[in-house]
Design goal:
It is built from eleven helices and seven strands. By secondary structure, the chain is of the alpha/beta class. It has a single domain, classed as 3-Layer(aba) Sandwich (Rossmann fold), CATH 3.40.50.720. A seven-stranded parallel beta sheet has the order 3-2-1-4-5-6-7, sandwiched between helices. It is globular. About 40% of the residues are buried. The site of NADP nicotinamide-adenine-dinucleotide phosphate (NAP) has 31 residues, from helix 2, strand 2, helix 5 and helix 7.
């Protein structure tokens, strides 16, 4: 009898939780005719996000520095447009790490061209990979300026319009290295972890304005940016990254887009992405009752499973060090 009562009470509590979430959770945004602004939209994940946006009927602004790359990307994105009569792609060349006023000017110009921003995607970024003592202070500074402060600049420029418009979505493209510190990523991981604190604080501030923030944590994705990063990657970092595998920009873009439209705070791709998001959900905003319950019940087991990943990474690092030591002895 006692167990029966407990079961009924738990059931009623879960049903209440579900109803509360149904009422307070963000509604899916309509993309048809909306304006999606993407930084770093001329290459890799950013370009795939822009293609996904136009396929769903949105107007798109892409921001990057290199004008030729912007023009080429514009043509490619336009070839995926759903309705050529009404949709447009606008490009603007600006370095998001420079003067905040210049960034604001570029965002205002985009708003004038394509209307208020519905979804802002802070995607522009890059990675340096190298052992800590081989990573220069300038490289640390560059990572913070581009991956963190660049996103702050663009978000600052767009937030006023979003508040006036009473709604929108802001996406930050972090990385799985923004959830777990990885060998060789002291500078990159630090810059991506910084985004998380910023995004959680910002979400609390902008929720009353019907603005929802999404933190996306892509795994390794087959882009020109990754190819560049691979040139300087320590062997340990390569072997650790191989554990997760390589994803296509379009798969990553589809998943980020769906999550952003639905106002989900944590966005992941693949099984390892799910594991890391569950484990690092912490005090992040709960935007879905299903995700919340799953996190409550599986966080412990995910911590247990991830410990085996850490053992594996330590073994890789130990093996590489032994190989290096014996090479040095024999030379
Ligand atoms: N690829 C991966 O494996 C992977 C995994 C996890 C997370 N990510 C993250 O996903 C994002 C995109 O990565 P990706 O691999 O697609 O990079 P990518 O192919 O190198 O593209 C980077 C884009 O950002 C632009 N950009 C770079 N610096 C800029 C600046 N100062 N101002 C304005 N635009 C700038 C680039 O154009 P210009 O050079 O012309 O400015 C380009 O359009 C990054 O934040 C990255 O950290 C990537």
């Amino acid at each position: 009898m006692f167990l029966y009562v407990i079961f009924i009470v738990i059931f009623i509590l879960l049903a209440l939780l579900y109803l509360v979430f149904k009422i307070i959770s963000p509604k899916c945004v309509e993309l048809q005719g909306s304006h999606v602004l993407i930084t770093g939209g001329s290459s890799g994940i950013g370009k795939a996000l822009a293609i996904e946006a136009v396929k769903q009927g949105a107007n798109v602004t892409i921001i990057a520095r290199n004008e030729k790359k912007l023009e080429d990307a514009k043509k490619e994105i336009e070839s995926h447009i759903k309705d050529r009569a009404i949709q447009r792609v606008f490009t603007t060349s600006v370095d998001i790490t420079k003067d905040a006023d210049i960034v604001k000017e570029a965002v205002n110009k985009a708003e004038k061209e394509l209307g208020p921003i519905t979804i802002l995607i802070n995607n522009a970024g890059s990675a340096v990979a190298g052992r800590f003592e081989e990573t220069s202070s300038q490289q640390f500074q560059r990572m913070i300026e581009l991956n963190f402060l660049g996103s702050v600049n663009v978000t600052k420029a767009a937030i006023k319009g979003m508040k006036e418009n009473n709604g929108g979505r802001i996406v930050f493209i972090s990385s799985q290295a923004g959830q777990v510190g990885v060998f060789g990523y002291t500078a990159y991981s630090a810059s991506k972890f910084a985004l998380r604190g910023f995004a959680e604080s910002l979400q609390m501030e902008v929720k009353p304005y019907n603005i929802y923030v999404t933190m996306a944590f892509p795994p390794d994705t087959d882009t020109p940016g990754l190819a560049e990063e691979n040139k300087s990657k320590p062997r340990e970092t390569i072997l650790i990254s191989d554990t997760v595998g390589l994803f296509s920009p379009s798969d990553v873009a589809k998943s980020v887009f769906t999550d952003a439209m639905n106002g989900k705070f944590l966005s992941y791709v693949g099984m390892d992405g799910w594991l890391l998001c569950t484990l690092s959900s912490g005090m992040s905003p709960a935007t879905s009752v299903v995700d919340l319950l799953q996190q409550i019940f599986t966080m412990g087991i995910c911590r247990f499973v991830c410990q085996f990943y850490l053992f594996h990474f330590d073994r890789i690092i130990g093996k590489c060090k032994r190989e290096k030591d014996s090479k040095m002895k024999s030379s």
